[in-house]
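Exercise (ungraded).
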Amino acid sequence: MTVELICVGTELLLGNIVNTNAAFLAEQCAALGLSCYYQTVVGDNPERLLQTVRTAFSRSDIILLSGGLGPTKDDLTKETVAEVFGAALLEDTASREMIAAYFQTRGKIPTENNWKQALVPEGGRAVANRNGTAPGIIMEKEGRHVILLPGPPDELKPMFTEEIAPYLRRLSGEVISSVTVKIAGIGESSAETKVADLMEKQGNPTLAPYAKLGEVHFRVTARAKTEAEAAALNAPLVEELKKRFGSFVYTTDETVTLEKTVADILQRRGLTMTVAESCTGGMLAARMVNVAGVSEVLKAGFITYANEAKSSLLGVKEETLRQFGAVSSQTAGEMAQGAARAAGADVAVAITGIAGPDGGTAKKPVGLVYISCYVCGEVNTQEYHFIGSRMKIREYAAVSALTQLRSMLVS
Amino acid sequence: MTVELICVGTELLLGNIVNTNAAFLAEQCAALGLSCYYQTVVGDNPERLLQTVRTAFSRSDIILLSGGLGPTKDDLTKETVAEVFGAALLEDTASREMIAAYFQTRGKIPTENNWKQALVPEGGRAVANRNGTAPGIIMEKEGRHVILLPGPPDELKPMFTEEIAPYLRRLSGEVISSVTVKIAGIGESSAETKVADLMEKQGNPTLAPYAKLGEVHFRVTARAKTEAEAAALNAPLVEELKKRFGSFVYTTDETVTLEKTVADILQRRGLTMTVAESCTGGMLAARMVNVAGVSEVLKAGFITYANEAKSSLLGVKEETLRQFGAVSSQTAGEMAQGAARAAGADVAVAITGIAGPDGGTAKKPVGLVYISCYVCGEVNTQEYHFIGSRMKIREYAAVSALTQLRSMLVS
């Protein structure tokens, strides 16, 4: 079945916000085995919206619309779809009650315009919105399925996951099952080259690459009559990917991040960790603290941006700083060992580098970063050369630190 | 003049990447005074791409296409546009030489398929790509202007800024001038309510809100015959916004961030700063280190995630932790004072809170955060209640810390 996305909202046309809804919905649809050929953004304009919906109706089985369900006069999606369907708008009692309750629990009085959100085109059904006032809508006509979702991502995402994805699964009559193979430590081009043949000849299952900063995720997706059959179709390709990428694969669990993987390894081994960050300025620690429950593993960390801080907080020798400089493998190694000592931790990761745009020299250019990992007495320091903006260099340094630490822990 | 965006790439339809190009181009076009009514995403499919370009040609003055200019067989944008124009593809010598040079400086040998990137539709002109292999293309026909841009954002953005924006400015025959009024410390709804009347009656200049996390930016844009006239049109509206928002306005310089503003204030006063972060885990320090040259101001910082770290590194009293808990205004105040002492800094910002999703109680729910600012002996602690995911709560805490510190420094 084909699906088409229509995102409604003038703020999207003005570039006021980035269209994260389209990426989310597109990825969800791909995971559901639906083929998406068009995404359109259109403004809060009745004629253009009508034209866009009609065009979608003429060429796609499923039409997902986001935005334009709110209480203001610019919110027109429901009215427009009702017009395309030739349906009247009727008040849905349950929706009206939910809107009333939403305002009551917040101690606020709804303005009159809020009640139009309880209107549903005749023949359609309302989908409860647990995180906002506007219910979603599902309508079917002439074999087409039209789904209206609220624009705010924090309302759209839960509604899609809880209500719409199950609905779409039932439509296809098939089961779609995915496994995501996540790798870190190999660049995107190299990773895709390693599996170019698999990508070329993919059928069922499909193989889709997702590039993240410092990581590549390969989603393997199969369609079959049952979950068990689909899983069986996925398995050989997943095994082939694990074989080709070896220990660069850090998880096949869609929900697990690189930092969670590292935190889990440390927790299983009863190890504590600290950080000593210079140019990353806290980015690495912040990634570790992304993990709920990391308090078992991370107790303290140090931002040592100035040379004096490297000495006073971590015990880096003045002689080392003088002879080799702040950005050197020697300094990185002393930072890691010093941090472990100062924090009383089993493991320490130190990062020192030149984030730019200034500060680079011929010998030590912008992007030069040393990362040192200390694990129970053993030290491993690596040199990196990152290319990009100040922000990019620091982000690459943080993910490379996680990758380097994991590699040292699992080897 | 109207502009339409077409983003080409199957990876966008699969949701593999978020369409940041569309947001960037849309915002740039708005700043140039161009009206954008449609954005479309289409895959690497010749027929659908052709249909999409033809549709755009029928309804918009300017068509911006991104993506599909690379060397692979999936890269079809140029061929498709040439077909719409009925133009042959001719090799552009300068482009071929630039592609050859690009590979040479990297010590790589280009594969055969790279040379097709040097082809330009007859009547079009190539636009140099300083950051990649594929040149951009500008073509004009029957009053329509078609611009092809490379897909990778790090290639598209500089090319647009350096080459395309000046071209578009000349097309309109007018000067467009913008001023961005950035405010922090007021929520988006409240901010827009404060200027609802101004938004309603906007003409020339226009007034567009941009919601960021913890901030709202209002872009004031005027069109006129000269820069001076446009600036004069903007000035009264900018003054009105500054009057209504008072000290919540932290800059009217488009390029200046909240963290840079804080760093600049500290630097001007010769003050140094440190941080003591618990739940934010380094996010605040990382924001300060976003600022190139922050080394004048930030020398050291502490991640004190565990209670013991709050005591051992910052001197927070065990009695305080026992009586009031880690998440309390008392602990936050001692963290700030202790950090200033430990780092020898004039200013310190401490954050302690419950990021969730676990750890909340009836008395101290998820989202409760205390932020304490110490400035040259004076301490100001505030209590916050954030709503959202673990990540959102921490991001809000970090931006609120910057806002609270700035507020204390300027008052």
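Further reading is listed at the end of the chapter. For now, observe: Chain B touches chain A through 73 residues (CB under 8 Å). Chain B is about 40% helix and 25% strand.
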